[in-house]
Structure formats: C-alpha cells, structure tokens
Amino acid sequence: MLDSREGYSPMSFRFLALTRRSSDVCKRHTDRCRAVVYQQQNHQPEEEWGPVPQAISDTAPSFTALVESTGFSTIPEEPRQEQIAFPVGSPQAYSVNPASIVSVDAVTTHTKAYFEYFHQSLPLVHRPTFTVSSTPKPLMNITVVIGSLYTIRLHNPDDAAACVQWSRGLWESGCEELSRLVSSDWRELRKTWVMQSWLLYIIYGAFMSDRTQFEKAKQMLRTLVDAVRELGLLRQSIAMPNSQSWRSQSEPSASRDDSQTPYTRWRSYVNAESMKLSLYTLMFLDFHVFSACNIRPLISPMEFEWELPFPSSLWEANNAEIWLQRVTQQYEASTLLPFDDSLDGSRGLATTSLSLATQELMSESPSPDLLTALAANPLATLYVLTNLDSLVRDFTRCYYQLPPSLSDPSAFHILTQSQNRQMIAAMRSISKVIKDQAYSTESPQYLLWRAIEFITCSIKVSLCKPDNLLIGGIVDNSLIAGLATATHLTLGSYTAVRRSATALLQHTSGEDAMLPILDDLTGTLLNIAGEDREFAFREAPWVTVTGYGILLTIWRVLRGAISDIRSNLESFNKLPKTSESCMLIFNSIMEPILHNTGNETADRDPRLWSRDRSAFASLLDESETLFIQLVQRVCKDRPVWGIGPSMATVLEEIVAASQTTAGAGLSILVE
C-alpha cells in the first residue's frame, strides 16, 4: 500500500484506487484460485498432458489407498510393503486432520517425482547420497510434499483434493517440527540437512497461492537469515574453515590413513558443497521470494563470502570413483590436487566470492577462468545473475529518488552511460556462456539454462522498463498479490507519479526505449508461448514469476505501440511508416502471438507489416485480445505451484470488468 496521498497528482489517485481494487480482487479470487489449481488444471487427462514418466506411473497407486489419519510421520517406523488405507468417501475429513502415514510405495512415487521434476531446477539435495531410509524425517517429508505437487495429476479429483489437504498438513507439521528443533538449540542450523529442509519448506510456502503459507514462509526466511548471520555462516572461512580439506595434497603411500581415501574425500566434498549450495540458495530465495512483493532482500552480497559452486558434474557423480575421475579430468591434474587453498588457484581469484565474480563480469574482459566456472555449473550462473538483478533494482530505487536527468540520451535510463556499459558487458558475457552451451530439451540441465535466459532478459527489461511496484512504492503482502497488483498497473503508466518535473510529464517518448531489447522480448515470448506443455509443467516457480513479469512488460509495450499507431491515424489519417518504432514493435510482437494462437500452419498472417489500412486496422483491433488469450493459455499450462492459475483468474477478471464497464473491449482500459 502507499504510505500517504501527499504530493500525488490526480492521475495518481486513479492508480491508488486501482491498487486498492487489486488488493480486493486478490482477496476475492484467492479461494477460486485454489479450486482452479487443483480441480481445473491439475486434473487434465493424460492425453492432454502427455504420458506420465514410466518411473513414476509404475509406482503410483490410488491416493485413497495410501494414507490414514493417524499422525504426521511420513514413513512408518518399520516400513511395510502393504498399502495403508484411509476410509473412503469423505476427503473433506482430512482438512482438519490431514492424513499422513504413507506407504513405502507412495513415498517412492513422490520422491521420484521430486527428483524427476523439481530437482533439475534446483539441485540443492545431493541426489547420489539421498536415501529414503537414512534421510532425516523433516527433509524426507518436504521432498515427498513437493513431489506430490507433480503426482497429483495421477489421481481423480476426490483423491487429489485429499492429497492437497494432506500435503498442506504435512508441510505445517514439518514447519512446527523444524521450529521446535531449532528453538531447542539454534545451532542445529549448522547441520546441512536442517538448512536444506528449512529452504525447501520456504519454497513450498512462498510459491503456493495461499497467503497464510506465504506469511509463514516469509517468517521462516527471516528467521533463517538472522540465524546464519549470528552463526557466522555467511563467511566460508568462519563457517567451514576446513571446507577445502578434500583438495589437500598428501603423500601417496600404502599406509595412508582413511582420511585420504577417495570415499572420505568425496564425502568431505559433498558436505562442504552442500552447505555452500544451501547458503547460495538462501541468497537466491531472499531475492526471488521478496522481489515480486517489492520488499528489499535481507542479505547484502557484500557480507556473503563463499566461493562459487564447483562444476555440476562433480556434484552429480554417483560414487567416489566417478567423482575422483571427473576431478582429474576437470582440472587436468593428478588425483591429489595441488591446489592453492587460499586463492583457489585452480579457478582464479574471481571465483572466490559472489561479489568478485559480479565485478569481474562487469569488466570489459572477464577472466576466462570465471567464464569456465560459470559454464561448468549453470546453478552458479543463476546465482550470479540474481545478484546482478538485485543490483539493478537497487540502482532503480536510488534513481527514482533523484531528479530526472533529461539530458542523458541513453535508452537504458536508470544507470549512467558508464554503468550501463558495465551492466551490458556482464549480460553479453553471460549470453555468450549460454550460447556456447548449445543445450537442448534432452539436456539434464535444460531447465537451468532456460531459467538463466529468462532472468537475463528480465534484467535487460529492468534497465528499460522498471517494475511499477518498485517505482510506485507499493509493497504487497504476498507473491500472488504482488503479481496481481503488477497486472493491474500494467494497464497504465506509474512512472510519472514518481517524476515531479513538468517537462518529464509532458515528454512522450513512446516505446523507443524498448527497441534495443526488442529481439530479446520477442525471443522470450516465442520461447514461453511455444514451450512444450510437459516442460511448462516442470517449470520452477521463480521462473514462472520471472516469465510472467516479462509478459507484463510485453503487454505494456504492445499497448504503447497500439496507442501511438492510433494517435498517428487520428492526426494524419494514415498508418505510420513500417520503419517507425511503434510499427516495428507492434509487428514484431504480434508475429509470435499469431503463430501461437491458432495460426501455426500459416507462414505469416498477411496483415503483418501490411500498408493496407483496413486490413491492418482489423489486426490492431484484435491484437490485445489475442495477446491476453495467449497469456491465459501460458498461465493455465503452469498449474503446479498455483501461480499460473491465479494469474489466469486475474486476467479473466480484468477482461470481464472492462467488458462490463464499457462493452468495447480492452482498448478502453486505463491509458
């Protein structure tokens, strides 16, 4: 909400009312969205979603035969092979006391789904050493809960409703169990599995569509940040002074003790890398959970000093022998690595901290060692990109508190020209790393590299079109509410409210600032809209949020181009030249939209780039409606975390409101 009305122009009161209305809208459709998530999208027939992976479908019994309401332990104390059934016929009974003792088959099904779908987007847990029998209960529970989000489509609607209530109850009980564990001794957070569990519980709560769960996840995130700060875990030299012991050189001999065996060195590496990935993930979530609500991150990258993660091939090695072989191949050294522990001589100084890596990327010629490290681990690239994204948002906060600089000719108006050059240099280096990967949908790291592409595009957008919530000073109370408010604000420009200069308010530059990244926007639009539904189903929730933000920007740009074209028609009674920015933007955006809204077989709609006024006018009239229909389809293709269906509901309400108010389509919405 806005702090006060003082100093606001009449235009701003319209946006103030719009913001309040969006908050009411969000409250109204919250319950509807839950039903949409689990009753409309998640229960698509198999033919529509495609075949379920064999590894999962083979172990997926009916949910009605898996659960009984006798507590909150996921795995029986003595695992039994037989199914444990709960009474049939009243799934509503589990809303109060969710069923939770699950058979071994069910645990296997949900765990496989976790690693099949979610793990590829965030390999936080060390898969080769993860076992059902030895994993602590809170960590096992949350992997089962997240996995159940993906297996829910295997059940009929009644079983799915029971599964939803069960998983939420198990999440809530897990949060309480972790809280009791840490409250008894807060140093328990030094244990890697405790931190991994805590992070996964945060992810589930933050990205579901329930406001209560978001509040709990936000509280857990703040608690974890305070704890790791108190424990000194933000600095590698304090948190794990022996974290590099697996890299130490020793004299090979027959009498060498167990501390130097390949297995013990591998486990030492796994322990150190697990803690490193957990803390990097904390930084990552600190940004992505809060940014959609316009809340500043809690951790500064300046206080975070951990070296970049090692190559993902080492993390995914199935045993000590494979790991040691990959270490040898990766660094072209002997099996006993002659590393300089203090300077990380094997990978270069730029990999020793997140801040140094970010600074090095913004130089004109980043270190080849750093680029190699980023290429070897897309998760490390994702973490560095998030830091760049956070930096741009910090610059934006400062920029919109300063007087406008109308003399700066740079289209990327937030930064100075030298700062802009540095940021673009970083984007160029990362784009080269992405291009060199030449990844495909068959690659096990496809989802990570795709996420990197989306976030790279989002950063470029932030340099040209800053977030309306950020520059408007609007802070929302949940991720879903923030996205809903951003959707409503897309229908108008909020920038002028924060720029007091009369000259700026009178200046109409159209959408020229978007021309430098038009190719990125249209490429991302084509990527999102043309995504195979199975891969859309696997999409990580933060990627859905990022992609939706890019779609809102494209919508804003499209509306601006439509307005400029109509203005030209009214003033000069003719279409602008095809080389003018508004025509370039309109035609470039409409091409992928038309290709993905029932015109896939046609080479190109003849109305595109047309100079025929009547033909082009029909496309102009349909354009925004076609775009919204495309966005709604994209949202419905992403039902797992509730973000997509919630935003589809918001769009439906916007369309219905515009038609009810004016009966003339979307073109009359707030300009």
TrEMBL record:
GO terms for cellular component: chromatin; nucleus. Keywords: Metal-binding, Nucleus, Repeat, Zinc, Zinc-finger. Its main location: nucleus. InterPro entries: VerF-like, XnlR_reg_dom. Residues 112-328 form the Xylanolytic transcriptional activator regulatory domain. The keyword Lipid biosynthesis does not apply. It is found in: Nucleus. GO terms for molecular function: DNA-binding transcription factor activity, RNA polymerase II-specific; RNA polymerase II cis-regulatory region sequence-specific DNA binding; zinc ion binding. It holds the Pfam family Fungal_trans. One of its GO terms (biological process) is DNA-templated transcription. It comes from the Eukaryota. The keyword Transport does not apply. PANTHER family: MIP31509P, ZINC FINGER PROTEIN YPR022C. This is Fungal-specific transcription factor domain-containing protein. It comes from Talaromyces proteolyticus.
